[in-house]
Amino acid sequence: MIGIVKYRAGNLASVSNALDRLGAEYRISDIPAELDKCDSVIFPGVGHAATAMEDLKSRNLDGWLKNTKKPVLGICVGMQLFYESTAEGECETLGIFSGRLEKFDASRAKVPHMGWNQFAKTHNHPLLDGLDEDDYFYFVHSYYAPVNEQTLATCKYITEFAAVAVNDNFMGIQFHTEKSGQPGARLLQNFLEITQNGL
Questions:
Q1: What are the strands of the beta sheet with 40-43, ordered from one edge?
Q2: Which helix (H) or strand (E) element contains residue 165?
Q3: Which of 97, 111, 126, 161 is 20 to 30 A away from residue 150, measured at CA?
Q4: What pLDDT does residue 18 have?
């Protein structure tokens, strides 16, 4: 059973539809005790990071997320909230990944970064099995995560940024798997296999 974190910034419909296509069982909840019953968790996100953090705190989900030992997949803003802080609203975030989110320089190209792009792997990981640099993923974001030792794959738009990152049981992806066609479905399937088999 996959838990989908329910909060004001979650893109619940598209994620649940993607899991339906894969035949996966899931539960949507904002109650930590309910999420504890799940085997793994998907943490989606769209919108403003500071607003999302406020909503997580109001539901006591921030502490639960930081402390869970279950596999967790953060998508888009969900991944961004895994870092220590963000320039979007100048707020502290969950502190699971190292680094701070910064805004793309709009004087150099159109912001947000929107559309299809590829990534380059920096490390192998079960989340990326069967995916390579020929695959395209769908991005929509104005803020970007730093490239560091936790980065699994990078992407380039104006500057190089982390497209996929991991720290122990926490995995984050900047793009929207649920909107990325077959490569996105493959990554979600990889996460389901991690849920079943472990890392």
A1: 26-29, 2-5, 40-43, 72-75, 170-173, 159-167, 151-157, 120-121
A2: strand 159-167
A3: 111
A4: 92
